[in-house]
Task: structure prediction
Amino acid sequence: MKLYEIANDYLALLQAIDEGLIPEEAIADTLEAIEGEIEYKADNLACVLKTIEAEAAAIKAEEKNLAERRKQKENAGERIKSYLSDVLQRLNISKIETARNKITFRKSDSVVVDDTFIKWAQEHRADLLTISDPTANKTAIKAALKEGAEIEGAHIESKQNIQIK
Result:
């Protein structure tokens, strides 16, 4: 029997008891049997949940390790690319072609802005700026609300969060 089915049976039993449909001598045994089933199912589900959470944590740790390794490889590749580029440009070599590789340079344009640009753009050309939307600092809002501040559009909501240890 599934946990939700047991819960439905339990609620139906409680309703039947309220309506006086169950003899008093049968109530204790029936409640004990249903509670035992709920406890057994809940315990099994908690074990499954712990296993899934442990696997998720292991995957997250591995993701972090892989991301660090990827970043190291990318940095090493960038250093080699930069070194090769610097040497070839210093020697004024613009093309090398071998059986395995073709190394060439292509022209690209990039925009460089200095420290004065932002102020100038704010005064003259705001369309040249990208402005991020503000986001709520929920930690600061929670602290302010707990101190008694009234903040329109914000409130603290209490929840019941299950804990399995």
Summary: The longest helix spans residues 24-90. The first strand starts at residue 95 and ends at 97. The CA atoms of residues 38 and 117 lie 66 Å apart.
